Amino acid sequence: MSAPLRRAEARWAFWLLLPALAGIGIFTVLPTLGSFLLSFAQWDLLGAPKWVGLANYQDLAGDPLFYRVMLQTGVFVLLYVVFDVALALGLAIALNQKVRFQALYRTAYFMPVVTSMVAGAILWSWIFDPRTGLLNALLALFHLGPVRWLSDTHWALPSLVMVSVWKNLGYDMLLFLAGLQAVPAQQLEAASLDGANGVQRFRFVTLPMLGPTLVMVTMMATIRAFQTFDTVYLMTEGGPHRSTTIIGFWLFQNAFTYFKLGKASALAYILFAVLVALSGLQWWARRRLSHQEDA
Amino acid sequence: MRQKTWLATLVLALGALAMAAPFLLMLGTSLMTYAQTIAYPPEWWPQPATLENFRKALTETPILRYFLNSLLVAGVTVVGQVVTGSMAGFAFARLRFKGRGALFFAVLATMMVPVYINLVPLFALVSMLGWVDTYQALILPGLAGPFGIFLFRQWFLNLPTELEDAARIDGCSPWDLYWRVALPTALPAIATLAIFEFLASWNTFLWPLVVTHSDAVRTLPVGLAAFRSSMSEVTDWGLLMAATAIAVLPAIAVFVLGQRYFVRGLLEGAVKD
Fold this sequence. Notes:
The structure holds two protein chains of two kinds. Chain A contains twelve helices and two strands; from the N terminus they run αββααααααααααα. Chain A is an all-alpha fold. The mean pLDDT of chain A is 88. Helices cover 74% and strands 0% of the residues of chain B. Chain B contains 14 helices and no strands. Chain B is globular.
């Protein structure tokens, strides 16, 4: 192709890219840089931001509540990821058997994924209602409870985990299902001809092939859990006694309740750093897994 | 083998019931009279069933306003995403220019940025422009995004080059290639992105929560949250469930109708790296 033609093509590329890149630049890249600068400043949205160096980070490092929030976030993420991944994998395995009404199940499990979390929170607040809720009615059948799900400091965080699992389970189940369907049937047959039982086939054939999917789903669930906000805001407001204040909600409070925008930005960057580190870990794990396959 | 299928069916059916229970309760309660919703011990089945709560929600509360706001914001967002995404995706897939790979990588990298990073500066930007509590604050930040670009690039990479070569020989400009040759083949990608962005916009909460505070522009999720807290003294569960159903049912309908495209879009989003 001639040079003028090539230049004309590049010019067209510029115009075709402009709307998308302008949008992403103004509304994602610019704020990301702005947030970084703000994390070194004190600002209440009214006056001019004041440069304070590392003070926001130092304040956080000296704040006992920061450690409590991080610990609670860690507990929330761990509980969520364990239950979500285990249930999603179990259901995907069940769905991968030759069961009837596959499409019906898929739709039922997927309904929460397309439902707004606000609607979900309203539905679950009602299910959690200590006096008239469905959950305590079920427990009463076994002469258990009543549990004050959202207002008991021990139960509030696990209750939020339950709602988050309900919301996203269908999505992760689908990812596992796609991974399971990629396992070649011949290998499973060969294994059973060699005398492997169902558990052994799963352990030695399916699971190694599922490795990359498992890493990916675990990773996505972790990232999602770290960013949880809606349920906390709508169902517990961080309480009772701050027992459900996890990082996303605390960040929001700092920004829009206490108007400490610098501190909120510092928190956002700490969260970002954690997520980037976890992504690095995922990349490393996937590489290791694919090397194992080669070997 | 048969035994295993039975076990799988049992697990799936119980799980599906647990997943669907909140929705069944929602529908049941939305059809109850007020007296029935406050009965103790609680009642689970509407008797008699009435549409009164839906009538009230649509005529005596701002729910219809929220619904129309959501529809407007989601509609414009979908159109914007399809236009910006298909143009940029086409450029990344079919046009040659310097720095193409690096630029595409940078676009993908923005997927990693958590919403919280941008929340504060974006709010500052929007308030500086005087856009707080306006439609443009809800719409403009969502008109372009990395997922749409990724999806269309993927689609256009698979176009046969013969088609393109023939068009080039005929003297087509890159714009004609995009508009007349590539885009008409991309209907499945358009449908995928449209459903995906519609649902994302319909359900998003945090950003509208931050930038709106009047009923005139509030979208359904924020409006619904405000509506619920407005009855914190005495909750009329029947009315609240009818309002919730009005927010939930369109999303489920869109999902069921576009399931094929939506599910594929989700899977592609997951394997983006």
